[in-house]
């Protein structure tokens, strides 16, 4: 994939707010590679939501906005909105570049396959309230860029995304998934613990990921879970 925006670790954020809109004029494109599975998830406080694979270029901007809001949520920079906009533009470019990859081509970070999963909200299919990336690297899978909009937190969105990602990984024939979590990100730590993730002692794998994601925050620790999830 073409150069992407600064990547955030898998469990560094479950954040983001504001309304996201589809870019107009972007064509709907067919799926690349294996067919996408749509999962139905019951929310505690709302009707069923859907986890699906990003395969529509028109939704790339919605996902990019969500990631930008998450990345800069705690920023006090006076130019925060401008930074968010530029970040979102770079993220959209990266997502579009990925969607346009030819089958079999490797991604920008060396992944054999990279899939973006997203959760639609109530209003329409254009309403994206959560997303994450699932990357296949040889015989293992890595999760990153987990983000959930502010209004949708504590409703099982992140858990639903991770479970859907685990199903995708199992379909690729792997037996474990990996992610990074930043110490002190209590919601993320609790979410992954409930799903059966534990600390990983695989320093070699951590090094491989850190090289692909050079902006991994200091202190981010590698976690892993065997499939199927608990």
How would you sum up this structure, described in words?
The chain has 230 residues and is of the alpha+beta class. The protein has a single domain (39-226), classed as Gcn5-related N-acetyltransferase (GNAT) (Aminopeptidase). It contains five helices and eight strands. It has helices spanning 60-71, 80-99, 157-171, 186-194, 203-212, and strands spanning 39-41, 49-53, 113-120, 128-137, 140-148, 176-182, 198-199, 220-226. It has an eight-stranded mixed sheet with strand order 1-2-3-4-5-6-8-7. Strand 3 (113-120) and strand 4 (128-137) form a beta hairpin. The radius of gyration is 16 Å and the shape is globular. 41% of the residues are buried. The model is unreliable at 1-19 and 24-48 (pLDDT under 50). Residues 8-17 have a biased composition (Polar residues). InterPro entries: Acyl_CoA_acyltransferase, GNAT_dom. This is N-acetyltransferase domain-containing protein. Pfam families: Acetyltransf_1 (PF00583). It comes from Pycnococcus provasolii.
Q: What is the CATH-assigned architecture?
A: 3-Layer(aba) Sandwich
Structurally, the number of domains stands at 1
CATH class: Alpha Beta
| Mean pLDDT reading | 80
CATH-assigned fold name? Aminopeptidase
Proportion of β residues?
15-25%
CATH superfamily: Gcn5-related N-acetyltransferase (GNAT)
Q: How do the strands of the widest beta sheet line up side by side?
A: 1-2-3-4-5-6-8-7
Task: Indicate the structural class.
Answer: alpha+beta
Whole-Å distance between the termini?
A: 33 Å
Largest sheet: 8 strands, mixed
Poorly predicted spans:
1-19, 24-48
SSE pattern: EEHHEEEHEHEHE
Beta-strand segment tally: 8
- Percent helix, as a range, is 25-40%
């Amino acid at each position: 994939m073409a150069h992407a925006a600064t990547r955030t670790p898998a469990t560094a954020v479950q954040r983001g707010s504001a309304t996201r809109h589809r870019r107009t004029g972007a064509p709907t494109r067919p799926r690349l590679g294996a067919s996408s599975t749509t999962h139905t998830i019951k929310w505690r406080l709302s009707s069923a939501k859907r986890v699906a694979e990003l395969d529509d270029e028109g939704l790339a901007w919605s996902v990019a906005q969500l990631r930008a809001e998450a990345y800069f949520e705690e920023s006090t920079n006076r130019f925060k909105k401008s930074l968010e906009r530029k970040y979102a533009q770079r993220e959209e470019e990266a997502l579009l570049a990925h969607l346009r990859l030819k089958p079999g081509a490797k991604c920008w970070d060396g992944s054999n396959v990279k899939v973006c999963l997203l959760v639609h909200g109530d209003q329409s299919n254009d309403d994206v309230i959560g997303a994450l990336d699932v990357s296949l690297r040889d015989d293992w899978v890595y999760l990153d860029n987990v983000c959930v909009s502010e209004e949708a937190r504590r409703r099982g969105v992140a858990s639903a995304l991770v479970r859907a990602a685990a199903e995708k990984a199992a379909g690729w024939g792997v037996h474990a998934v990996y992610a990074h979590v930043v110490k002190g990100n209590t919601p993320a730590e609790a979410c992954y613990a409930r799903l059966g993730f534990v600390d990983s002692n695989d320093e070699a794998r951590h090094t491989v990921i850190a090289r692909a994601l050079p902006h991994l925050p200091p202190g981010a620790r590698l976690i892993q879970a065997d499939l199927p999830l608990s």
